[in-house]
Write a structure and sequence with these properties.
Four copies of one chain form a homotetramer. By secondary structure, chain A is α+β, with helices and mostly antiparallel strands. Chain A has helices spanning 9-22, 36-39, 73-92, 106-110, 121-134, 138-150, 158-167, 169-180, 188-199, 205-211, 213-216, 231-244, 250-256, 293-306, and strands at residues 47-52, 57-61, 67-68, 155-156, 201-203, 261-263, 268-273, 277-282.
Amino acid sequence: MATPPEFPSETATVLDEVVERVRPTAERGEVATYIPTLAGIDPGHFALSVSALDGSTHACGDADVLFSVQSITKIFALTLAVQVTEDHLWERVGREPSGDPFNSLVQLEHERGIPRNPMINSGAIVVADILLDKCDDARATLLELMSELSGAEVGIDEEVLRSESETGTRNRALANLMASFGNLHHPVEQVLGNYFHQSSIMMTARQLSRAIGFLANDGVDPASGKRVLSASGARRVTAVMLTCGTYDAAGEFAFSVGLPCKSGVGGGIVAVVPDQMGICVWSPPLDHAGNSLAGRKALEQLTTELELSIF
Amino acid sequence: MATPPEFPSETATVLDEVVERVRPTAERGEVATYIPTLAGIDPGHFALSVSALDGSTHACGDADVLFSVQSITKIFALTLAVQVTEDHLWERVGREPSGDPFNSLVQLEHERGIPRNPMINSGAIVVADILLDKCDDARATLLELMSELSGAEVGIDEEVLRSESETGTRNRALANLMASFGNLHHPVEQVLGNYFHQSSIMMTARQLSRAIGFLANDGVDPASGKRVLSASGARRVTAVMLTCGTYDAAGEFAFSVGLPCKSGVGGGIVAVVPDQMGICVWSPPLDHAGNSLAGRKALEQLTTELELSIF
Amino acid sequence: MATPPEFPSETATVLDEVVERVRPTAERGEVATYIPTLAGIDPGHFALSVSALDGSTHACGDADVLFSVQSITKIFALTLAVQVTEDHLWERVGREPSGDPFNSLVQLEHERGIPRNPMINSGAIVVADILLDKCDDARATLLELMSELSGAEVGIDEEVLRSESETGTRNRALANLMASFGNLHHPVEQVLGNYFHQSSIMMTARQLSRAIGFLANDGVDPASGKRVLSASGARRVTAVMLTCGTYDAAGEFAFSVGLPCKSGVGGGIVAVVPDQMGICVWSPPLDHAGNSLAGRKALEQLTTELELSIF
Amino acid sequence: MATPPEFPSETATVLDEVVERVRPTAERGEVATYIPTLAGIDPGHFALSVSALDGSTHACGDADVLFSVQSITKIFALTLAVQVTEDHLWERVGREPSGDPFNSLVQLEHERGIPRNPMINSGAIVVADILLDKCDDARATLLELMSELSGAEVGIDEEVLRSESETGTRNRALANLMASFGNLHHPVEQVLGNYFHQSSIMMTARQLSRAIGFLANDGVDPASGKRVLSASGARRVTAVMLTCGTYDAAGEFAFSVGLPCKSGVGGGIVAVVPDQMGICVWSPPLDHAGNSLAGRKALEQLTTELELSIF
């Protein structure tokens, strides 16, 4: 393997300065507490990793520390579903922002079991159901995809998996409600087992900024040159990230960050800069909408200073 | 045991005439179809049974045919809960009409897992949870109470129980949602097991019109003279029946029937005439609100002709 | 005119004791503040008036002080509408409890401009629209009815009328929303003019306990012997009071008071004891649901002690 | 004035072919019928105009026919509000997709009179209120801005204005509801007068594709070189267009078109291609979400063929 090219030093300097500036704002957020493993995380962790399409990466802080990616997995699960069955997918899950807290049952009941989009829990549960149909071993297939894209052996945190499964009453409510409308094709507990497995995946910021690169590169993994999605498929997944990827703060992110992003309650956020780079920022304390507080600040500042907004 | 007194013959004549008149209207309704056992019921069944407080009963039609009482059990489960723990009960379930279809999750989410009242599914699931705490064997205790009040050995339909449990995704959604708000104290499946057991009870119209008599008699079972609830306790259960007992048609029933009623999707409806009698009518085809169509018509006509309205 | 019979002295004693006991609880409530005239009311006012069907009345406290009856007028407006056009009435307004705060637009939008019942603002605005059609002078006709039933010249408070009209943005929102669904037949401002006029009526507790008597007397005004509504019409209006008369505390009132009641934000509550009496209690401080706090306590205690519950 | 440069001929050919292909799909839509002037429009009109930042324009079909721009004006009104008072603006209107039909009151009530975003009617009414504060003559100032940007004298259709005002009960409901929460600072009818005036503006597709150019050009009007908004202000308005500009089909537009768009019920849609061009398409028949059916098809095809998506 050839030595990767060097990351542009002026850009690296800007990134380092942004990290210095936003890091203290994390104190105003709160780490997720619904499962013990997340509640026990050190709130002082901070990582920023930016991977250019030429393979060069600039990483700051704890960019090599594994963390619970949580909902960020939803992008990769959606990618897999688009690969195997795009048409049927969109009959069973919508593509509109939810306009409601991320785990709301109201809209799901009103819209007869069809989740608003695949970035909220209910939609990702439908995706998990679809993958059970289309993959011999859905859990292994997803881990393989994420390992390949990140260039690392990706695994799960067994303790998070156990906690998710034990405390997942609200996800059980969502899944049973969808089942009552006929929008799950496998037994509820089997689907949830797959979904909880996805939520328990551990990765580093460096791995994620690389893994997300295919969405910035018209669907082709920049590292391997292999096509993951068609160009239009990649654009569509990216569009869904922008309008739906950050719970009910999607409008706010578009407005102030201007990039397609997906966040997780573990404090990670990935962002796509079309034709340029993949970004991952990680800081566990969350704002009231469930997005990493300092992570969002970092993205705001770096898109402004580097003029990365897609608008 | 002494011969029971005779039922007044003029009243009996009115009842027979009402039955003749309303029976054909059943054709405009639809039997419940969500479980096969209910879907397979003969829609032509019709029964009316009226039990005066002196022990006399007038029964018409299929008054000795067992049917699935379904939600009618909710009154007896509530009675048991009021007996054992009235105070804590009303902290965990409300007393207001739901204003929404009977199994809606919207209100439950909005009101943070506290069901509107114990006559809707979510509220009855909380009652089932409470009884698990307060009774050594909640299923047996409830069957004993209902057997004692009806003067018959009351049992369940195993096939209905199995079907309810297999198809109960919506009730699972309700229960898990309440569990996510901390309003269930036992494991979801254990609570649902008790709840589904309640819904599977079989009784006849004659048994039900007698069993409900204590609510018309200030809380004392007219047959045995034993106190079931305090006078005020009985009045409060009756008030909840009136405002909440017929899904989202409670206002309509108060308006057109004028009696506290509780209906079940098996097509049964019980009604209480304070200080006078207990009534049970059974006709499987339901109206759009889930209440027996001809049953409701019968109650409208007999309260009008016999001037039984409480208003 | 013959001297009215004397009110039973033991009942009078019970009433006086109830008043003594509940009066201090008013301190825990808050007077309505949305218009200055109501906000400026002396919170220490308290009145209880009970009128038996034989014409005897027992009045305590400020029973001869005029107060703003506000929503209590809705009963008399509904009575007038039932007189003139019952059938069409129920196509344009429902009979179900609202299950939501009394001025909510949510349900109104969801149900396409058909208000839940005539006891909430939206429903009363539809009634005001209907009366414009059916009466030559809707305002005068309503005042005449209320004057006749109360045996006094009933008028309005011009200052309240002005305030209601100036601050009535929420009622304007309700009326315009219904107009957008085609459920108002006159110009919005004309309908609201009539509605605000109704809300500005002033009466005393003594007048109200008498005026409501026809609902306890099968539709016949006990004082004049004149029929106001058919017996079944009166029962139906009373049923609507029970299920819908106290905003979203109707279940609570049925449970704890056990009588059909209608309250107003001026602090008045009227209650009907079928075949026995009309009751009015007045104490301006309200509970969180918008009902007179001490008034409700008084009704709870007197129905318990005098065993007046309809259940 | 110098001759404008020529529009690239290959691009022009693609545009012409797209128009040919999508034009017939208009038959599957329905023109807006809520006001007579819109209902009477010839559904066969079709226009596409594309203005590059160098001043060259390619126009097809009825690109010089005036039509009712309706909600498209919301972009220019928002631009004016951002110019004069950005900070206070975002305290009174949100930036999130609504997730509900465009004129829903539900969310507005739930969120206490703060509209979700300035692209829906309620949000635009707040903007109209703000402009009354900040401009001596809000109507004239807006017309001036739009005239300047389009290089034409922009005016209104008096008949549309009259119709809007007469039939605007739903907008009156929205405005009164916001007033009840204190989120309008001027009298409701004055604010609505300004809002209805905005909705009555007439423009051509050619004028609109040019007028929208400043949003593709970092806030600078490409024709005059004058700065209309700061670069970041322009990006933010464009972000709001993308997430909120097409009623509750914003996710769908992002997914299938991939450009920030704003539509009006007159059948017009404008789209911004950052750093490249402004687009306007016009075809009166609407899809179920209220967006021009053939207009949307045209945008889908031209972004695909010309690879204009921002993702």
